[in-house]
Amino acid sequence: MTENIASKLKKLTQEYVSLWQEKSGLPPASQDLYGVPSTCITRTGDEIVYWLPQPFIGIHKLEKVEKAMGITIRPELHDYFSTQFAGDMQVRFRNINFSLIQIWSEEDFIRLQENIIGHLVTQKRLKLTPTLFIGTTDSEKDIISVCNVSGEVILETFGQKKKEVLAESLSIFLSELTPIFDE
């Protein structure tokens, strides 16, 4: 499982980097990450940062989330969030364009875990099935998540029971993503 998720995520990232290099002659760029330290940074421009993926160097995965929430997180989610440091990537799944969440740095990994805990606390309070988000959409309420019970990738409306199954597994989902050049 570990190699499967890691290899699919690395392959997608390489496709994303290649697309950027083909279209712009440069690595992927982000204005949102300008001024935020990371080993991914290859160069900076006028309020923009260019990046390339780097190996995840942390020894911990999502154990702090598990401990805080008293749950076991699916192995593929541990693998997804501890494969690499990279900037978020614009991708398409069928007719849905969204930003695939990535870890930018060790500090970002800590922030992500805090956000996941907050998300899970809200779900627990509302008696919803626990999910971990992996993507954001243009809508402020709709997110791409992985169900921690079934392993399905879903489009869910935050804080509501409304959800649409997109793929039966994270592995299948990653295989079907197409990078988007969004300068």
Automatic annotation (TrEMBL):
Keywords: Cell inner membrane, Cell membrane, Membrane. Signal peptide: none annotated. This is Protein Syd. NCBIfam families: PRK04968.1 (NF003439). It is found in: Cell inner membrane. The keyword Glycoprotein does not apply. Interacts with the SecY protein in vivo. May bind preferentially to an uncomplexed state of SecY, thus functioning either as a chelating agent for excess SecY in the cell or as a regulatory factor that negatively controls the translocase function. It comes from the Bacteria. Gene3D superfamilies: Syd protein. It is a peripheral membrane protein. Belongs to the Syd family. Its main location: membrane. One of its GO terms (cellular component) is cytoplasmic side of plasma membrane. It comes from Proteus hauseri ATCC 700826. It holds the Pfam family Syd.
